Amino acid sequence: MSNPPTDLAIEASDLVRTFGKTRALDGIDLRVPAGTVYGLLGPNGAGKTTAVRVLATLLRPDGGEARVFGHDVVREADAVRGKVSLTGQYASVDEDLTGMENLVLLGRLLGHSKPGTRERAGRLLDAFGLTDAADRQVKKYSGGMRRRVDIAASILNTPELLFLDEPTSGLDPRSRSQVWDIVRAVVAHGTTVLLTTQYLDEADRLAGRIAVVDHGKVIAEGTPGELKSSVGAGTVHLRLRDPAQRAEAGRLLAQALDAPVQPEADPVALTARVTGDGNGLEAGEQAARALAELARAGIVVDDFALGQPSLDEVFLALTDRPAVPATAEEAA
Amino acid sequence: MSTATATETTTAPATYVPSVETLGTVLAPGARPARPSALSASLTFGWRAMLKIKHVPEQLFDVTAFPIIMTLMFTYLFGGALAGSTREYLQFLLPGIMVTSVLMITMYTGVGLNTDIEKGVFDRFRTLPVWRPSALVGMIFGDVLRYVLAATVILTVGLVLGFRPGGGLTGVLAGVGLLVVFSFALSWVWTMLGLTLRSERSVMGVSMMVLFPLTFLSNVFVDPGTMPGWLQAFVEVNPVTHLVAAVRSLMAGTPDAGAVTWVLVAGAVSVLVFGPLTMYRYDRR
Predict the structure, then answer these.
(1) Whether A62 and A189 share a structural domain
(2) B223-243 tens-digit pLDDT
(3) Residue A30: which CATH number?
(4) Which of B187, B194, B220 has its CA nearest to residue B103?
(5) Chain A window 75-104: which residues touch B at a Cβ cutoff of 8 Å?
């Protein structure tokens, strides 16, 4: 609490929210610096959506408190609403209306004049590549277009804080990267973004800081680099030329990496976790040494990849169990 | 035609590349306009209801076909038996059947809200810094249009069948006006139900359970004088009875000030009780 509240877009302490017997939020603490992208990373049912809904004034917390730019989300909900926009997990636009009608509707609700809101809506649709679809009902849009019109609706008045709840879930790779570009542009203009995601690579690409959420609690927090190094560099995937050498290769790898090695369905493929030796030897270097061992033993490696840890691996490392969905609460 | 649509849908999304410059122009924080007034926000939400009717006109079926069926059915079913002729009966029945049909239609306000609120767009509405009840008030404004439409349909059918109101145009307009005002007030009961109950079907079930006895155990179809005493007692306190008496008197050109006042007070009480209850539920969803 040493920072003045203006430096923090979000400051939440010990937030609790229960649905029946499920503790969707079980004492969440968050400090989100203004002007950054902050990632909430976790599996389905971890409490990410509930946290966003509490911070966006849609749900009242059962305990704890949260401030958005210094305004209490319960007592000063109206002041908070003047500063935030929400793009929910499911389209937060009216699917029966056209893209243009949606933007004009929201523009009018934000107090823009009729001609002013049409003009702004037109420019937004243009910037989001939706001019041709302006007069089509949103329910006829593709997934990527829906997301874009949804985000466009969120920046009719450029918000100070934008909530993006799983903005790329269910999108194809091209649409995902479009959304990423948009998020970068939004934050470059000074808007703080709170992004929830199930994908570590997405949080890694966009977020300055990440909180890993599980069972309604923050179980780790830091920059993407800090998080990854706490987990280890990830997984090494190998494809050998000769399937007959797989058993031998597996033995050597297990020794060099000091980690269990899994044979894959493909008879020439192997996977192992690489974590570094804990005494200053980086994971990448350790993997390189393991490769050298294989070469010395005369094992030909056709393909080698050192992957980032997946969310599953982050979870395994942080909780000693895989990231399985908890009880259904996100819908509530 | 078909080729034009095909190329439009395949090329338009594929060619979009977010451009930093164009995004920059729309992201530049402009001056925030002043918040809209409560009325302006409500009317904008009313416009949304109009747009939904424009895109899904089938939803007007219940305010057109249903009232026609009700009017024809009860006129010809009971007319001969109860009043000697259908034309005679119609003079008595029409204001009542109009009240019955419109009140039945009010329950769709709750049903509609129950499905609408589940959609993500309500999350956005609820995070907007506007007068809180405006989304619901606007929705009911849209429904008021449906009530007016239903009343007009019934009146037209009635006039064709031989309904000749003694109050003339003024009396009819006053009657319809009072009915619509009361229906607006009653809608808040359904919005509360729509926000409280879990499914569309349960909203429908509960609404029917309330509306069915209220509309039938009243003075709509027959003179209560022929009913057993305990039923007369119920009919006497039934709000529908007072509403029908008031509308009938206005249309006949002999306004019953007592009944009209009763209806207006009951409407005000309904809004004052169920409006805040609705908003309580709305804020805690």
Answers:
(1) yes
(2) 888 889 999 999 999 999 999
(3) 3.40.50.300
(4) B187
(5) 78, 81-82, 84-86, 88-97, 101
